[in-house]
Task: inverse folding
């Protein structure tokens, strides 16, 4: 049998000052960066935490943590190339 090797793709991921992945590229991330931005926009539009949680299918506590900077609040200090 002949094996076919696929070319490895590389992409840039955001890292913090400790060179650890952050945002949607973190291994345990559930929401994409776009979805986190949507949580903030929905709150600005006046939706309650419960309404946002139902709409985004996450817990009310998860919404609160995003909005209050306890989750997904780091700013990238660099980018690294990773192979997929």
Result:
């Amino acid at each position: 049998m002949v094996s076919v090797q696929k070319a490895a793709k590389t992409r840039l991921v955001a890292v913090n000052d400790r060179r650890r992945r952050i945002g949607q590229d973190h291994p345990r991330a559930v929401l994409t960066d776009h979805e986190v931005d949507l949580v903030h926009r929905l709150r600005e539009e006046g939706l309650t935490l419960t309404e946002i949680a139902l709409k985004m299918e996450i817990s009310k506590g998860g919404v609160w943590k995003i909005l209050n900077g306890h989750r997904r609040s780091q700013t990238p200090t660099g980018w690294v190339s990773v192979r997929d």
User: Anything to note?
Assistant: Helices lie at 33-44, 49-56, 60-67. The longest helix spans residues 33-44.
